[in-house]
Amino acid sequence: MYTQIALSTAERLILPVMADDSSRRAIQNVFSLIYGLTLPSPIYAQYAFAEKLKKANRKLPQIHLVLKNQITQYMGSASAYSTVLQAIDKDINNLFKAQPELFNFDNLREGIADIRDFQTAGVVAYARGCPFYTLASGKLDLLDKRVQVNEDRRLLCASDIDKIVKKL
C-alpha cells in the first residue's frame, strides 16, 4: 500500500537494474503493475494501478532514468553481464517504441546510464554513513577489518555519480 501511495504521487521513476534475470523480470513487472501492460488476464485491467489512477484523474509517473549496474572496472560491460543488459535494453527499447508516453526522454541514450559497481568504496561509505565525496582512500577500518579503498576507483565512481546527477 505504501508503495502505491508513493507511486501515485511520483512524477518520474528511476529504475535500477543489475545484469541478472531478476532485474529483467522486475522491469517487466514495473510495466505490468504500474502501467497495466501485459496483465495475466483482461479481468485484472479494472483493478490495475494504472486504471485506478486514471479514475482518480492522476497522471502515471514516467520513466526518467534506467541505471544499469555491474560494469567492470576496466573494460566496460563484461560479456555475461553485457548479454543480460542487452536483453534488458531490448525490452526497454520495445516498450519505448510502443509506449513512448511512459518515458520522459526522447531517445534511449538520454534515459539509460551505465554505472560501475561501487564495490568496496560504496560498502565502506554506506557502512560508515559517510557521503561518498568525503570518503577517504587508503586503508580504512570497517567494523573489525581493515579494507583498502582505491582512490582511482573512488574517483571513477564519483564520476558516475556526477553523470547520474546531470541526468536528473
- Strand order of the biggest β-sheet: 1-2-3
The backbone outline, from C-alpha atoms, is elongated
- Can you count the beta strands? 5
Structural class: alpha/beta
Give the count of structural domains: 2
Helical amount among residues, as a percent range?
Answer: 40-55%
Strand content: 15-25%
* Number of contiguous helices: 7
What does the radius of gyration come to?
19 Å
Major beta sheet, specifics? 3 strands, parallel
SSE order, one letter for each helix or strand: HEHHEHHEHEEH
Low-confidence regions? none
Kindly report the average pLDDT value.
Answer: 84
Task: Describe what this molecule looks like in 3D.
The chain contains seven helices and five strands. The chain is an alpha/beta fold and 168 residues long. The protein has two domains: 114 residues, no CATH class; 50 residues, no CATH class. The strands form two sheets. It has a three-stranded parallel beta sheet, sandwiched between helices. A hairpin with a 2-residue loop joins strand 4 and strand 5. It is elongated and about 60 Å long. The model has no long low-confidence stretch (mean pLDDT 84).
